[in-house]
Amino acid sequence: MNSARLCLPGSRASTIALLAPLLVALGGCGSIEVALGLRTRLDKLPVTAASAALSPGPALAPGRSATLVITATTSDDKSYVTVGPGKGKVLFDSFTFDAQAVTVSAKGVVSLPADPRASEGSLPHVRVSVVGHPNVVADLDVPIRYDVPYAVSFGGRSGMDGLNGSDGLAGTAGTMGSIDPNGPSPGGNGTNGGSGGDGRDGDNGGPGPAVAVSVALKATDRPLLEVRVAAEGKQQFFLVDPNGGSLSVSSNGGRGGSGGRGGSGGMGGSAGSGAPAGSSGLNGSSGVNGHDGFGGAAGTIVASVDPAAAPYIDRLHLSTASGDRRAGRSPDVRIEPVPALW
């Protein structure tokens, strides 16, 4: 019953209590919500048609995602819309998906691969079939767009935080004496508390990597920039429409680790009672905090831009900084021949 509460608004708590045996038997949030009328499945409804759209849409950029909004129409002219951006009640398990050049999750999320080479020149397509109604389908083409801001960030290793110092041990209490006027004896002195240990210094952050950027102009009806970004033995590819699109590349040093906290000094032992009373021990001194590690050095960026792509060089944003957020060396931008990147 506790798990059922996670699926439903708080105002439904009394309903859950009443339907607890049924909810346990059904299992799963979707079935529980259908049982309470909060959600709908289409397999038992007289569905005659379906349509699909993307939100946001209608186009997708490489590496981006959007959610399907599916509307089903029944023979009595009622419309049923999917949950999520559609703001309806129909669960996505009312559908199956057949996709080309894109992937579709069980929750209706449509994703285009980040590498533009995987989809370039194609028209991604999704076919939606309604469960229980094999003859009812909806077809959706997904145009590809490249006029979006892309960003890729590289960073050095963060330094490990320093260990905290150990707290000092408390002093022991003094032994008790006697205050009997016929046989007085002095109380013992409390011992001093132990000193706290010093915190360890944080490690320094690692340097940002060396990044190589190559930019070529793609020969198409409209100008598109082919971009390859290489660092740490890996490559990433981008296709950028300079009419609205851009690419930001950064290489930053890693953050320095925080210094460990110094341990607290132990409390001095209490004085023993007696005639006269003993003295209390002194509190131990606290340990010294460790020093923060230094941020790693800024990385380097070398960009080779083909002369044909040079008019669009302002769509390329390059930056480097240290782990302490100090600006690094200005990226080295070279106008030189760059062949087609794929």
Structural summary, described in words:
The chain has 342 residues and is mostly beta strands. The protein is 7% helix and 30% strand. The protein contains four helices and 16 strands. The chain has helices at 2-5, 13-18, 20-26, 29-35; strands at residues 47-55, 65-74, 79-81, 95-100, 103-104, 109-111, 125-130, 133-141, 149-155, 210-218, 224-231, 234-240, 246-252, 300-305, 316-321, 332-335. A hairpin with a 2-residue loop joins strand 7 (125-130) and strand 8 (133-141). The protein starts with a helix and ends in a 7-residue tail after the last strand.
Shape: flat
Q: How helical, in percent, are the residues?
A: under 10%
* Beta-strand residue fraction: 25-35%
- Compressed to H and E, one letter per element, the order equals HHHHEEEEEEEEEEEEEEEE
Average pLDDT, rounded to a whole number, is 91
- Please describe the biggest sheet, giving its number of strands, its sense, and whether it closes into a barrel: 5 strands, antiparallel
User: What is the straight-line distance between the termini?
Assistant: 56 Å
List low-pLDDT spans.
1-6
| Helix run count | 4
Number of strands: 16
Radius of gyration: 34 Å
